[in-house]
Every structure is written in structure tokens, then in C-alpha cells.
Amino acid sequence: MTSSLQTPDPNPGWLSEFALAETRTRVPILYVEAVPARVDALGQIEHIGVLLRTSAATGEIIRTLVSGRVMHNESIRDALQRNIEKDLGPSAFPRLPATLVPVTIAEYFPFPGVTPLHDPRQHAVALVYVVPVTGECNPRQDALELTWLTPEEALAPSLLNDLEGGRGQLLKQALAWSGAIV
Predict the structure, then answer these.
(1) Cα distance between residue 162 and residue 168, in whole Å
(2) Within-domain flag for 10
(3) Which pTM does this prediction carry?
(4) Do you know which InterPro entries this protein is assigned to (predicted)?
(5) pLDDT 10s digits, 87-131
(6) How many domains does the chain have?
(7) Does 5 reside within a domain?
(8) Which of 1, 47, 49, 170 is 20 to 30 A from 148 (CA-CA)?
């Protein structure tokens, strides 16, 4: 899969598309999600990045976060690094935290209403991180653009509602966890 829970991964890893579809009907799939951030010298968030892409499921233009599966025998750190590079390019230069304690753990269900988070294809569990990036971010794969927003701009209801699968809630949690909002 890719950066979005809706986008096929160009390098599917250990399962064929058929096997992945079958597995998704039987077990939760593990993901990492990242809120890319530009921080000041004190580590305070100045801007966060939100991706714009076309939904593979609906064809609609959507906003989303960096996201992707954790592959078999891949560490969380490696999965986070790989998915950030896949979505933001090799020159993003993410500063992964020394310890990989997530901001939150998100659980997506294939039917709406169980949690605010929804992925029509599967039951998925995602470890969510805020990751400062210091380099040049050039969206890759199926991402159309990366928009940098101040924490205040990111809290606009129209933007939060545009985030795919209920990710507006994750963005608010990430900003609160980081101290960017009270």
C-alpha cells in the first residue's frame, strides 16, 4: 500500500495484491502514519505538511498524511523512514525520534461508526508520529502536492473535514501532543 490507506503500493513487499486483499479480510494490517513538521530552533512546530492526492477508491482529490504499511520483518523505524521517503522524496531528511513511542495509535475499521477513523478496505492499526523534516520535500508516487500549514491553519474545520478517513482527528491529536495547540 502507500502513503494513503487508499493507494496501492508500487512495491507491495511480501504479498501479492490478491494475497493482500485476502489477508485484509482476516487480520488487521499494521501501518505507520507521520505528520511532517518544520520546527524552530527550540523544536516548536512552525508548519505541518499535508499531502494532496487522488483517492484510488473514489477518484476524488483528498488530503491525507504520510502513511504506509509496515512490511514483514521491517522495523517500525525502517517503515517510518521508508514511507516518509516514498511520499516526500529522498531529500526530506526526516529527524526520527530516538524512541519510537507514537503520538497515538489509530484504529481504522472497514465500516463507519466503530471509531471516527474509516478505511473501507480493511481493519488497520496505525502508529502515528510527528516527524520533523529539515530538507527539501518533493511529493512522490501518487501525491500531487505537499501543503505546509501553520498549526492554526491546520485546525480550520474545512481542512480537518477534508482529511481522508477521519485523519483530521489524528492531526488535532498530533498538534496537541506536540504542544502546538492547547
Answers:
(1) 8
(2) no
(3) 0.86
(4) DUF4916 (IPR032582), NUDIX_hydrolase-like_dom_sf (IPR015797)
(5) 999 999 999 989 999 999 999 999 888 899 999 889 999 999 999
(6) 1
(7) no
(8) 1
